[in-house]
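Meet today's protein:

…
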Amino acid sequence: MIRELRREDAAAVAALHLAVNPHQLETPERVWFWASRGLEREQWRQWVAEADEEIVGSAWAGFEWSVPTPGKGRFWVAVSPERRGRGIGGTLYGFVAEYLRRRGAWRARTNVDADPAGERFVAKRGFERRGADRVSAFDVRRAELPELSLPAGFRVEPLGCVRDRVEELFAICAAGELDMPGDEPETAFTLEDWKLDDFGVPDLSDEGSFVVLDDERAVSLALLCVDPGRSLAYNQMTATLPEFRRRGLALAAKLAAVRWAAANGFERILTENDEANAGMLAINRRLGYRPLYDQTKWVLEPLL
């Protein structure tokens, strides 16, 4: 049976997602946040596949809300590893594709996490590979961290000390989003959207995220999400205002987050960057992040 996601499904869906890909930060709170945050342009919908009173599949669909061109659909389908090969994924994909078409999608995009069966699934349906994100991990337990160093006049503060500077923090993230490799700049990214996106995730750490200040102005940041139960953290966003780049500020903010994680019992930090994002990949290598796998990107255009 395929039905819409309910709040009480979140724990089972999070467990399913981790069974499919353990290299991610996923919690029940995070599952329900994405499903219920209410970004109007995103039009998010989520379903589960249920068999014998057990959730054996999950799928969501929505639209790329931060770009000006309408009709760019995106989705993800997951099936419990022991339940594959029984048509569950194909049925979920049918719900996804029909929903996107009815809402005006002319193309669809999805990601596949180091899963040959998943790549065969989308290729069979006409999707073409269009690049990849490099997923990397930092082993905090074995880290030899450099000293935190900043140019004169700059200082680093935890996010919790400057959280009220919402517009300044948004400006940094918006500048970072514009630099992300992609087929269209994210110029439809608004302050209110951002409050429901990076700034609104339930596991964003006020203590483990850091902001670089120039005098009293926020100019760079590294946002860290955490799952203390798994001793796992995730780099949600690292960015710097354009006029303050190439001074080592993003490196300093990210290093402060790593040092905090090491001091607070975390074991690994995950991050993902487009394979074309040479600057951030270089920062990660310098800090000691090591590649785990490539998350491949797949596009179907037109969506038939």
Observations:
- The mean pLDDT is 94.
- The chain is about 30% helix and 30% strand.
